[in-house]
Amino acid sequence: MSLNKPLPKPMTMTTEHFSEQDTSSSQQPSRAAENITVTVRVRPFCVAELRGNHGGGGPTAEVWAVLENDSRIRYADDYSMRERRAAVDYAYDHALTGSDNERIYTASVKSLVQSAMEGYNGTVFAYGQTSSGKTYTMSGTGRQPGITPRAVEDVFKYIRENSEREFLLRVSYLEIYNESIRDLLSPEAIDLRIHEDRKRGVYVSPLKEEIVTTPSQVMRILQRGDNQRHTSSTDYNARSSRSHSIFQIVIESRERAPTAPRSPEGRKPSLGLGFKSTKAVRVSQLNLIDLAGSEKASSDAERRKEGAFINKSLLTLGTVISKLTEEKGAHIPYRDSKLTRILQSSLSGNARVSVICTISPSFSNVEESHNTLKFAARVKKVVTKAHTNQVMDDKALLEKYRREIGELKSQLLLTTAIAAEQEQSDGVGGFDEFMSIDKGQHAELSHLLEKERLKHEEEMVEMSMVRNALKERIDQLTKLILTSQSINNTTAAAPGVGSSFLTSPLSAGARPSSMHSQSITGRYTVETTADGTVLEFPKEIESRLARKDTMVRQLQSELEAQQEKVSLMKMALQRAAKGEAVDLEKTLAKVEVEPPREKFLIEKRASIMNLNGGMLWQDGALLNGHSRTPSKRHSKIAPEGTTGSGSQENQGSAAGNDQGEPGSEVLRDDGRLAIDDEEEDEELLMDTPWNRSELLSLRQAKRELEIVVIEQEKKLEDMVAFEDSEEFQNLVIEMEEQREKILVMEEEREGFKATITDLKNMIRKLELSRVDGGGVGGIPLLSSYETISVLPSSSSTTSLSSTAAGPNRTQELEMMLQRERKLRMEEQTRNMSRVASLEAEVTILKAEQSVRDLHVE
Ligand SMILES: Nc1ncnc2c1ncn2[C@@H]1O[C@H](COP(=O)(O)OP(=O)(O)OP(=O)(O)O)[C@@H](O)[C@H]1O
Asked: Looking at the whole model, is its pTM more than 0.90?
């Protein structure tokens, strides 16, 4: 196989980030200039207010009259008369009472979400005194989901219903607490900075963004962020938000286009095929903001400090709004608070904005409520003119992912074509020629064919691993890109997720059944660095995959070692069967005693690593390694007879290798093992003490598996809370499977040992039979072989004890060889299925990783 294009890049990569005012973006249709949408909501009396004495007229006497149909609010007549207050009367876009969050969402936010999906920035914020109902309005409750979950639901609904576009969504969540910005999705990241440049406008960094593919995934992220948010019990609210929070959804979308690489019939697709789309990507932001509430002095010092920061930033917000409406061209003090600085882009024009002002119905809060109404009236005057932002290059993640998918598909096509070619050439001709040759050539050819077959199988395994890696990456990226079809599939596969999540409580305990598939994609996060670069993080799974690759490589080395060892034995037996002089003791000694050639083994493993694992994460490593190594090995394969026939060349080369330098061993006429310089890689394996390396490899593999088991056990401890879940049960099963694998490997090791013992015994018996027969072949009787009679043997000794053994011996050896071949083939099959099962295990581990992510959430 030879490919000339690097395979999938490492999962961690850097990308350029879309910028709102990017020079490469073109500004597309604008909406007509419009005022900020303002809604005032008067919440119902709370229990404390109903019980307390809140001034004249009784605790529940009406202060505010809300005329919902006219979208007006004013003092209630009774109150106005009783308190001798001058009449006030405000008109907004909507004035609402009650607890129905659906109504307020539909009236104030729904259309804004729709336009965010169409490419216009959108910002919604809730403003009001502490305990007036901002969080209730934005987040809601299990029974009354607020604006944020409803917006999330509508975002996915829009994707479901718009089959002509594809989308990529990512979310971030931050809070401003005591004038310090904190990443709620990465709580260790505190005091984030606000940056501004010509390209990107105003932005916060480094800020973690997570790519999302389902509503429930977004809700879990929100829940995770909410758990990190600063809230406290105050004099006014048992669970008061002490910070401003900003939840942002970045929506990238593009008209759908055929993505598959098109190659002319019968021609290989060229690598590096560009998929530069002519369709621009629309990028917009939807900001959902829950402000902290203004408040009167608190009895607690800490709360007072928080309150001071909150009040100051809200005051600045008020000032900014005033300036925006009152003075044309005046300096707008956005920089006076973090809140106004972050909202600068939205407030200064390029966004549709909806403000929900919440007020308490209570007499005791009438002044604060009035202030809120005045703020709302000012906001109403602010004019914005949102326009869509379109990006023509791959600064949008969507474009970048599409390109990568296209390129990966090209590579996949190419590897498939190469595999097919190999399959074809494998079966071409040879049978007639094979039948017509004589017996000696026959054996030689069989040996060659066997070697070729093994090499071919190895290449096919490698090829299949390459293809699997390509398919997996394509799959991962494809899942991140949302289409109406993919959303519908997810919903169909997981009833209860998506359209119906609003009816279930938004608690972390409400886990959807599609957790597995979601979390595979959910492991993608992107983080924006200070220079605007977006980093993609595939999290811990990479290291797990790498460890699994190591195990696969280990097993392959082990398999190779076994094959080479057997071929060494076989060769010695064949020589002996032909009556040639073979120093069997030396052969055995080579196998058993000599120290391993670590350097060679390391190189061998490294080359396999390049062939298999390297391709996953290192550009070019796989393909270069793969195209070079097998062909080199192929050219080095020497027909069995040529090395052992005692040719002058071989003897000559052997003479130059007396010092045991690396080189392949050949059997010389004098019965000694010689080294052939020209037979480097392929034959060098014979010089390795396989018993030891085999045991070491197996032990190493066993240790690897044990480490995995220990880790799984540790994880299980951490997951006590999920003991009843299906995921938990899966982990238990997986652990059991790991244990079973260890047992199977131990059994196999025993099997290998038994095979080796058998082979040794056969050789020794053969030696004995020669000695009995008068030293056929001139092999001296070795004292160590005197103990042979007590060795256990599964073979018949009769055929070997006769001097007439010529044909019988040959027959027996042929049988032994056949048996050996069968064993090797079984072993090969076993190892291939083990590789397959390890791949399956990797998939399970991914699922397990996502369970762990959810557990952290
Ligand atoms: N429209 C409403 N219907 C029913 N209950 C409401 C409504 N609005 C608020 N509440 C309840 O009033 C209490 C205070 O509301 P909430 O926490 O949303 O206020 P807040 O403005 O976010 O306060 P803070 O600024 O202190 O965070 C909560 O118990 C909430 O459930």
From this structure: no
